[in-house]
Amino acid sequence: MLTPRGSLGAVELQEGPSRYIVTAMQVARTIADMREARARMAGSVGFVPTMGYLHEGHLALARRARAENDSVVASIFVNPAQFGPDEDYDRYPRDEERDLRLLEDESVDVAFVPSTEEVYRRGYHTWVEVTGPLVNRLEAASRPGHFRGVTTVVAKLFNIVQPHRAYFGEKDAQQLRVIRKLVGDLSLPVEIVPVPTVREEDGLALSSRNVYLSPEDRQAALVLPRALDLARMMVEGWGLRDADLLRESLHDYFRQKPQVQVDYVSVAAPETLDELAVINDSALVMAAVRVGGTRLIDNVTLTPRGEPLEDVEGRVEEMWGRRRPGEAGAAE
Ligand code: AMP
Fold first, then answer.
1. CATH classification of 3-195, choosing from 3.50.50.60, 2.60.120.260, 3.40.50.300, 3.40.50.620?
2. Distance in Å, CA 202 to ligand 1 centroid
3. Residue 133's Cα: distance from chain center in Å?
């Protein structure tokens, strides 16, 4: 049964032709209910898939969907299939009541909140998997099976919700590209809309996992956005083109914080995610680090502009106390 959320504070009054119509967000907990709600939607449908514990990043997706579509569906589903056995599925933060209030405040029409048993019914045995270079590195290397879980649930959610547009955060840069590949390869009739990363005032990208961070770890985690700022300065400000030197500089920068372990630093072509040797047009700089027990990811797209500073490589190497082999003063 579809449940209207009746909390009066968020109920919206819309002026109809001859009377006021009261609309409130509906909560669909089964696939059948979601399909029923979808069948009643006219015009374009925007879809925002989430794992809940919503923050301003998720809400930016919902607002964009609201602005661009006649109806908006958001899903809340902590998808066990995309967590590895040693990952945080059991302790992943959840607060459904608060999430529903936030979605209602953004004038979302339907919240799809299925149980695990509803999505993966007894005897479930089907996977949807992107293969190839896009999914054999970066996040995939640290989280085997992760993208298979993501693409399986997203394909299933697309089938149920049948949106015209689906909204994904640029914060999960590789995921965004994997979803685009899924949609392109399977000719799914949905437009994937990327939404820029929403950050705290001090630069940390919003993430449901930030709640795991102790105050000290929260402070140490700032090294991630600051490393990306540094990358921006080196590439866009100084004109550094040497991608190896950029990667090494970022590793050196992270090394200054002993609480932070680097999973990867990548300087890649934005479309293919192939690692670059030289930054010509633009580069997607991605990093994943662990702070305390928490894994954080972030990225920035950089485009070199203008003429590089004179001997920019030399200056960058000097900054980190490096010398190229063979140069006077080079480390043995
Ligand atoms: P999640 O609930 O973590 O699975 O995220 C759901 C969606 O929100 C994904 O498309 C994420 O990329 C997006 N998202 C998460 N954090 C942010 C953020 N800080 N800014 C923008 N989008 C985000």
1. 3.40.50.620
2. 18
3. 19
